[in-house]
């Protein structure tokens, strides 16, 4: 039996917790912590107990979820403590229960990875007002819940640089974009990418496809479909395809390898995270969405008692919250142009669109 503080839940919350058992995989340090922090944070480092609820696909996607875990891992390594993980089932119907269980078991803060937790986290945060929550990719400003922080990103800015890089490196003046789910968040990636490419070459052709429609999150975990869509782009003459498709991005890399073309990764430095040398070779760059930095920073703020709930924190080019990876050296020759675009965005000379 762990010695963690149990937060108070309403009768409804308790009933929710008894609805069923979950597979929660714990990754604990040798030292057992005793208690979590208050709503505003401030837990002693050795008492840090982090709950991490993953997006679709869980840890091992070599992208979004893995980046979040890397941030938690870095914070725990620096501050001490432990982390307990939760992965939702395929349809996400157990998200509320998963978050509630983490809070009930005394983990604090609890971090939800992905916009799909938007409604769930508001419900659970009200049931556990003494627990500090954060959510990646979902605004909390309108929720009216004071113990949740939104960790947002200017994906369109980083994607603009990816589009500029693609246009500068393309030999066919024809590139592509594969999105996981056709929804506003992923359309930010598309909008920025197309704008960046057009800034370099107004006449460039940019093919756009989505793996699944809005509301169907399977598009983030369907590499076979990602491969088919990217292959059709390559066969039509595109020589670089950028994906914002989570675990489906592996299929885009496979299509690039099959056709002798190149691809652009997303979220993590995917040149470093893929475990297949053939796929690594085709990754020209990756649009870095520093979920790891945002999560680590939030946990550090929590440990120091500096979390301000009920607000959104946007990570952009100016804060190095987004950017382009240089691993592999394939964009070394265009760094001067990329840096010029980056500075123009930071200075407000270029306003990047957030919708296609």
TrEMBL record:
KW Transferase (keyword) present: no
Protein name as catalogued: Nucleoside-binding protein
UniProt-annotated location(s): Cell membrane
Naturally occurring in which organism (per UniProt): Blastococcus saxobsidens (strain DD2)
Domain of life: Bacteria
Pfam families cross-referenced by the UniProt entry: Bmp
Signal peptide boundaries: 1-25
Cellular component annotations (GO), alphabetically ordered: plasma membrane
InterPro entries: BMP_lipoprotein, Peripla_BP_I, PnrA-like
Membrane topology qualifier: Lipid-anchor
Entry's family note: Belongs to the BMP lipoprotein family.
Coiled coil: 324-351
Domain ABC transporter substrate-binding protein PnrA-like: 54-354
The entry's keywords: Cell membrane, Coiled coil, Lipoprotein, Membrane, Signal
């Amino acid at each position: 039996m762990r010695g963690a503080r149990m937060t108070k839940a309403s009768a409804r919350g308790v009933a929710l917790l008894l609805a069923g058992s979950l597979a929660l995989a714990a990754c604990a340090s040798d030292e057992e912590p005793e208690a979590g922090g208050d709503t505003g944070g401030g837990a002693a480092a050795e008492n840090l107990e982090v709950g991490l609820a993953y997006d679709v696909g869980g840890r091992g996607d070599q992208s979004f979820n893995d980046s979040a875990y890397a941030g938690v891992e870095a914070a725990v390594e620096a501050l001490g403590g432990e982390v307990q993980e939760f992965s939702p089932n395929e349809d996400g119907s157990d998200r509320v229960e998963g978050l509630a269980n983490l809070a009930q078991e005394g983990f604090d803060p609890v971090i939800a990875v992905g916009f799909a937790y938007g409604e769930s986290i508001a419900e659970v945060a009200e049931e556990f007002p003494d627990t500090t929550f954060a959510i990646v990719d979902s605004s909390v400003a309108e929720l009216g819940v004071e113990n949740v922080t939104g960790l947002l990103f200017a994906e369109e800015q980083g994607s603009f640089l990816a589009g500029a890089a693609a246009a500068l490196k393309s030999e066919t003046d024809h590139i592509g974009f594969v999105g996981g789910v056709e929804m506003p968040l992923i359309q930010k990636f598309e909008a920025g990418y197309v704008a960046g490419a057009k800034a370099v070459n107004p006449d460039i052709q940019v093919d756009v496809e989505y793996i699944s429609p809005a509301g169907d999150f399977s598009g983030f975990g369907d590499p076979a479909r990602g491969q088919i869509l990217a292959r059709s782009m390559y066969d039509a003459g595109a020589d670089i395809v950028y994906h914002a498709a989570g675990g489906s991005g592996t299929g885009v890399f496979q299509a690039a390898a099959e056709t002798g073309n190149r691809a652009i990764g997303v979220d993590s430095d995917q040149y470093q995270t893929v475990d297949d040398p053939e796929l690594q070779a085709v990754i020209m760059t990756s649009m870095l969405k520093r979920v790891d930095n945002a999560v680590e920073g939030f946990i550090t703020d929590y440990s120091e008692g500096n979390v301000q709930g009920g607000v959104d924190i946007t990570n952009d080019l100016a804060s190095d919250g987004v950017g382009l990876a240089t691993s592999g050296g394939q964009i070394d020759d265009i760094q001067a142009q990329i840096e010029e675009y980056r500075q123009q965005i930071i200075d407000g000379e270029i306003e990047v669109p957030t919708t296609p």
